[in-house]
Please model this.
Amino acid sequence: MTTPNPEKQPLTALVNREAPLDPAQYEARGGWRGIRRALTMSPDEVIEEVKNSKLRGRGGAGFNTGLKWSFVPKEPAKDRLKYVVANGDEMEPGTFKDRILVEGNPLQLIEGMMITGHAIQADHGIIFLRGEYHLGLERLQKAVIQAREAGWLGKNIQGSGFDFDIHVHPSGGRYICGEETALITALEGRRANPRSKPPFPQVGGLWGAPTVVNNIETFSNVPPILANGNDWYLGLSNCEDGGTKLYGVSGRAKNPGVFELPLGTSLGVILNEYAGGMQDGYKLRAFLPGGASTAFLGAEHENILMDYPSPEKAGSRLGTGLAILLDDRTCPIGMLKNLEHFFAQESCGWCTPCRDGLPWVERLLNVIEDGKGTQEDIDRLHDAARMIGPMGRTFCAHAPGAIAPLSSGLTLFAEDFQRHIRQQRCTFSQGRSAEQAA
Amino acid sequence: MSTADNTAQNAELPSDLVQTFRDMAAHEHHARGASIEALRLVQERFGWISDAHLAQTAQVLGMTPADLDGIATYFNLLFRKPVGKNVIMLCDSVSCWLMGQEQTRDRLCKKLQIKMGETTSDGEFTLLPIVCLGHCDHAPAMLIGKELYGPVRPEDIDAIIDDVRSKNHDHA
Ligand SMILES: Cc1cc2nc3c(=O)[nH]c(=O)nc-3n(C[C@H](O)[C@H](O)[C@H](O)COP(=O)(O)O)c2cc1C
Ligand code: SF4
Ligand code: FES
Model:
């Protein structure tokens, strides 16, 4: 990355993965300006500002953040507990952005949660971090202590009368903990099963109290919005929604990684200008635009804008904005099998179509990839996709997310499915790239 | 559960841990809110969560052992059986698979002479699959204890394992 520019890269400009800034250094580099300004505003004014910045949640669903906060009942926290919860579960395969923020600049996340606390009049913050992020956990815990010692957390913050403190919760590890109601259930010390809605967490969340759950990247956007205002934030993006985005690619790119770019940058630019293009000898065949639970798009969509509406128009989702690349030498059915193995294993077991349907899908893909499949097996996969996939048949979006790559893959890779059946074998060696055949 | 392999499993929970759990529980709306973190602390101290420790933790938190066991068995990172001195978690998710995780896995199994899910006979290593470690730009990725590795190619395995082994012996 070139010289970090806080005017253009508000999320990563202060990221230092060797040693994150302490509260004083953070202040010297422009930190704490957001919360200072927020504390001069009323809670409603803060919510209005964030709403108008057109910040949409970066955890996958893309809901307007200020609007979400506005659903929290208005009474102050003194009368009734309220919670601000940061979702740092980050177990979606192919997604590796929040790690950089917690390891590199935890204070910006803390400041974002403080501003949210002021906006919804909550004084409790909890950071839910996946248990495998050992370095992130250590750095976050240290940052919370440092912030408290410097008077940025605790009672009467910087003499303003505002109270807010943060607890860091390391997870016991399960993908489903990232689903916001399951995350709340986990924080209550229960098996992390999702809950039916309503009540929505903003009204009845943790211990029944109003709770706002946002992604770590979402919270990290909030301080710069408050510090610099809406117009500046809207001006950062190349599209209707505001801000920059942590984009990235994994798979056979020359330099896979994460890059902070204007929201609405095309995949082609991300891949070719930032990730160095495809490795020599590999061509882009298809990609999952934003993690394992998004639908495949073919290489003809290489220049699609990675904003919220464009992938949707093409039949997929922006998701977490980190694309996974399928190259022309790797078996797409092998890739689907890997994806469905993950979803089958990580189903929480609450709903029958998800618990029983996904292992069945995995088995069918296995048979086909082994060269023992028939046309009927493909028909069954289509049936399964049709029956498990639609939103609303299960408690949470895990099942629809699991089906997104499958149903798109059945269409996009129809020829590969047919060839596996006709030739009764995988024409890519063991489902791996041709390279490994040698 | 077998007995001889770990003397700590039947011991009383140390009083400092019990006190920590009481403090954590007091900060929660309900004591059970501390359960996952408490189990993590037991495991950090003893390597795994024995029946005896589970029951005592449940008592401090005012839960039944069965209730707490329901939680302990739900989460991937909580171990209800002894594990080796070093737990190796090899990512088997999609970006790592695309980059040749299967070859790395085969080499790792061969080097340790165990299958996924097993512990080496000298008790040094337990090998487990894990979902995406958020290190997909360094695929295939692997975690040994708290140390993150990647990209781990098959030819890197011998050096990594030998290095961890020799560090273990330095500390012993
Ligand atoms: C199965 C499943 C897993 C999820 N995992 C995560 C996650 O790891 N991190 C995250 O921020 N959101 C995750 N989400 C989305 C959350 O439910 C929720 O929409 C999000 O945390 C809201 O924050 P945002 O509005 O800032 O995006 C997941 C959703 C589902 C259905
Ligand atoms: S859809 Fe799957 S993961 Fe979600 S609640 Fe139902 S069984 Fe659990
Ligand atoms: S897929 Fe292996 S680290 Fe992300």
